[in-house]
Amino acid sequence: MTIRALEKISVGQNGIGSFILQCKRLDIHYCDHSGSSRGMNAFIKTHLSKFAQKNPAIEFAVSPRPRKHPVMIGHYINGRQKSICVANMEPSQILKKAELLRDASGDKVKRVNKPVTSINESVRGIWSPYHGNGMAV
Amino acid sequence: MRRISRLGKPSGARLAPAARPLAPLGTPRASTRPSPTPAAVKINTLRFYSSRQPEPLPASLTSGGKSAAPEEIVEEVEVQQFDHDQSQQQRLFVPPPRPSVAERADTITDTLYTPATTAEGLESIGGLGSWWDDPAHWPETSDFVGFKPKQKVQEPVLLEAAVRRALTETLLMKQLGQEEQLTGPWGLQGKAQHDAVLALDVRVDSDGNATVTGDLHAVADGLVVKDGESNVDSADVLPSTAEALAWKSQADQSWKGTSLQDARLKFAVIKRVMQLTGQVIPDQKLADIATARGLLATLQKPPKPKTLSQEIVAKKQDLVTLPNVAFSPKRVTRGDKDQALGRYKLIEAEFRKRDLQDGPLSVPKSREKKHWNGEA
Amino acid sequence: MSRSLLRSLFELRAPSTSRPAAQFKLPARSLSTTPLRRNSPTTTESTTAAAQNATAPSSIPTNPTEAASLVTESRSQTPQAAEALYPRIPQQVNPPTSESQATIAQLLPLLRTQPAHYLTAHIWGRPYLVTAGDQIRLPFKMPGVVPGDVLRLDRASTLGSRDFTLKGSPYVDERLFECRATVLGTETEPMRIKIKTKRRQRRNKQVRSKHHFTILRISEVNINGPEAVGL
């Protein structure tokens, strides 16, 4: 009989030992001239410094993108990215969108019906009709 | 082809060779007229010239000209050429030599002459080659010098000194009865004149009418433009910042109440300020200026930042100093991302290895930039 | 004693001590009625009676603020702000019967010795049966929390291991366990489009809805001994 290595490998679960924010980078694009960027420009001037101070784990990259609508792009640890066009939005609305990008995990959105997801084995085991005292019919 | 930007250099009737009558007609020189512009002020202008190596001249230009062509054809060519008056032309550009013209085949009397059947081995004639691209043919004196200096003065103290000087000069011209001079060109003199103007005393009454006392005639003589006036470096027209600060600390500030309701006075002051500092007051702000103080405030108001990044650098230092925020003043391109990652060097090296790209892998300069540099 | 219980006694694992217990000392209060029930086939008559006692109909409050008081150990907020948003609600406990005191003193140490534990934590009136490491997708977006915040869940209706279950009526005394959850973030789901039709009308209306859900990860489940309630 050959000796086989254990197939079980450790699975990373965020938040058990330490917590790592999934959003690692937020690209903020604006245009200097077009009117759809007015809210975004105001957001950069008024809200961004406080938001960046509160979220030191995120790298903020602000750069112009002339003649384009303003966009925020979140880059996540899993390699995916999520982008939101914030044309014609008020600064407070844009702040909400920035929080949405920060809170997101970066995974594809999917419908989940069960509230609890677990990779642990069942604590009380699986019920079997052939064990125990039996059932009186 | 030469671009229009290069032909824009000569300014005024005196300087325009194309506007002159054709050479054979021989009208009197226009240079005897008084100059509409003051003597050229030496200003640090940017000079754009072709970076191309000058090519050798065509044989028709180097062979020295007139000998080969019949007389009547030379006359005809001369009409089409620029005027060859060296005393005038030296300051503008160096015209190409007269081209030589080959003899026509039907006029050749030599019996040994046989017309060529191929172009090989024949000397080329005609064309100017890269004559206009040679910087040596465009002396520095040919650069266009405008009324307004190219470098704007932004320093508030210097602006205050300039407004005071312009106001005093305008007031004294008006006071001396030289009303027609208010709309004319004034000379740009150096620091001595500046100090002399600022030494004059300006008294303002309650209605805003100002009177200047002092040696008015000496200053007025310096203002009037004479032909052949010496060039003054624009850096010396206004004092240094330290000198202006010293002047301001002991100067009487009551001159700022001078009324500028008189349109001729206002025009003259604003024109002079523009000549001294390079600051132009836009039309929509002109109507709001009623006093010298208002004019000064308009000038001293810092210009609005053109871009968001400029504004943030100027006003929002707390945002720039945050360690997790990076600002880019320009659009971030694919190349920038590669450079940030260090991938750019590798791509360049791989291209070089395969002989695909010589030199840096960067975006080529725009075509317009080539034209600005005077290249074809 | 069952074979599995014996096995788990040998596989005894030290309880998680990632946080000092003294930090979360709660004010002394009267004991709750938290009878202990044994699930093993060797159930005695007395504990079965206790189990019936425990499963007697009890009114579980539906008001979220009563059903679960969250103690946020937040990174992002000051303790005062967290307290203002989620005020600490003391647990209403009934005095325990002498029988339940006896079963807790006797059987809770056995429950603790079995390694894997589960509990039914209640968050805003809803039960979630979780073990350490599980992820909960709450059916709402919890206001005032940011990713990385640690919540202490202090309402549980059951604590259990493989063979033992401690049932609360309605809740287990909060001094008997420590359960912490880390806020992972907010997720959403694909937009739902419900088409509303009316009979004999050609128009139909599309109703769109998209909700946001807070994601929690159970980072810690500790069960304290009977000495935590003075037994």
Automatic annotation (TrEMBL), chain A:
Residues 32-105 form the Ribosomal protein/NADH dehydrogenase domain. It is found in: Mitochondrion. SMART domains: L51_S25_CI-B8. Pfam families: L51_S25_CI-B8. Keywords: Mitochondrion, Ribonucleoprotein, Ribosomal protein. InterPro entries: Ribosomal_mL43 (IPR039927), Ribosomal_mL43/mS25/NADH_DH (IPR007741), Thioredoxin-like_sf (IPR036249). Belongs to the mitochondrion-specific ribosomal protein mL43 family. This is Large ribosomal subunit protein mL43. It comes from Apiospora rasikravindrae. The lineage of its organism: Eukaryota, Fungi, Dikarya, Ascomycota, Pezizomycotina.
TrEMBL record, chain B:
Signal peptide: none annotated. The keyword rRNA-binding does not apply. Keywords: Mitochondrion, Ribonucleoprotein, Ribosomal protein. One of its GO terms (cellular component) is ribosome. The keyword Ribosomal protein applies. It is found in: Mitochondrion. Residues 1-70, 357-376 are annotated as: Disordered. Residues 12-40 have a biased composition (Low complexity). Belongs to the mitochondrion-specific ribosomal protein mL50 family. This is Large ribosomal subunit protein mL50. It comes from Apiospora rasikravindrae. The lineage of its organism: Eukaryota, Fungi, Dikarya, Ascomycota, Pezizomycotina.
Automatic annotation (TrEMBL), chain C:
Residues 16-80 are annotated as: Disordered. InterPro entries: bL21-like, bL21-like_sf. Residues 39-59 have a biased composition (Low complexity). GO terms for cellular component: ribosome. Keywords: Ribonucleoprotein, Ribosomal protein. It comes from the Eukaryota. The keyword Lyase does not apply. Residues 60-80 have a biased composition (Polar residues). SUPFAM superfamilies: L21p-like (SSF141091). Coiled coil: none annotated. Belongs to the bacterial ribosomal protein bL21 family. This is Large ribosomal subunit protein bL21m. It comes from Apiospora rasikravindrae.
